[in-house]
UniProtKB/TrEMBL annotation:
It holds the Pfam family PhoH. Belongs to the PhoH family. This is PhoH family protein. InterPro entries: P-loop_NTPase, PhoH, PhoH2-like, PIN-like_dom_sf, PIN_dom. Gene3D superfamilies: 5'-nuclease, P-loop containing nucleotide triphosphate hydrolases. It comes from Negadavirga shengliensis. Signal peptide: none annotated.
Amino acid sequence: MPRTSPKRNSKIFVLDTSVILYDHHSIMNFAEHDVVIPITVLEELDQFKKGNDIKNFEAREFIRLLDKLSKDYMIHDWTPLNGKNKGNFRVLMNPDNKLNANDIFGEEKNDHKILNAALSLKQTESGRKVILVSKDINLRLKAKSLDIYAEDYETGKIKNISEIENTGKKIVEGIDPDLISSLYENHIMDAKEIFGGKRKLIPDSNTFFILRGPSPNISILAFFNVEDQTLQKIEKSRAYSVSPKNAEQAFALHAILNPKIKLVSIQGVAGTGKTLLALAGALEQRRDYKQIYLARPIVPLSNKDIGYLPGDIKSKLNPYMEPLWDNLKFIQHQYLEHDKEYQKITEMVNQEKLVIQPLAYIRGRSLSNIFFIVDEAQNLTPHEVKTIISRAGENTKIIFTGDVFQIDTPYLDSQSNGLSYLIDRVKEHPLYAHIKLEKGERSELANLANRLL
């Protein structure tokens, strides 16, 4: 087929490998503008195409997409992106520039080859704005030092992180003491009765409330059920010997134990009890589910693959799974060794009724009749979170825990990680509840670190 001509007033976006590994569909998200893929990116993707991790999936899907789009074209020519008002794309071979990033930075690296591609386009596509798109902050800084426009990949990013912070809990002052007493006695009331003329306080999502009367000693914890528009009294119940130590923990445990809530996210800094509450709630409901899964993403030490670690696969994974075992042991040691609750946990582990494993070993499986806890969810991409939830079958409950400000992966931040994405996208769904834990309960020493260091 004949080659297409790009629009002269459109921009050219040069995609880095990190963007494609984050979202294989990214090439389609630049409106009417043109997209360039440096040949170095394809070479890097070739190294990622084998494996079970999400980056391997993204690499494979992008390669298939590129193959489909270029079916009737030579990809070094401008090739149309299928879809209304879409631009074109091309793969750029290694250019021979007068200005060479390898020479400037004193080292030959793939990143510098990608920079060279952008430099070449600035020369050959004069009059058009060339923009490097990368999730790698350092590469963006290097690009700007070479007078190349550079930006993060924005698709899927949360625009206002403060909305994530404010989701889940509200404090309302000045509630009539008689209404608080009535809710305390009846356990459930129509929200309109409680709020009366303050109906604007009625939220659009499942929300936890601290309702206070005229004096501070008159208060009650309540859950607003968006489906039936009622306020329900929250009891500070125990779960497998674990008791909530503050209002937010009581809210979190209520959501975990509520059979009508199928999806829960718990946000909070280290030591606030996120994983402990989720695990205790799972054990309390062990008879209602076939298995309990605990999983967390593997973030390799010093950005090295786990293959660098010694031993078999179990030995390699143990360091990453140890925090989950620590929480399980803490719950177990609330009991004596001869207590049936202590022995039940050991039995569940031995019989694989309670399974701790990395997420890579869960993808592709059908999760029916499962209580599934995903720890450190801020280290997941939005696509990974979607993949996990889409595997849920009948009678499955999923709990995501994490801290959106404590990210260990290099190409995610507080606005682009999977946990923030989840909270933002599903906050108004009746099957979902979210709570932020604010007070550290691990120890005074841990609280000192969170506050002052």
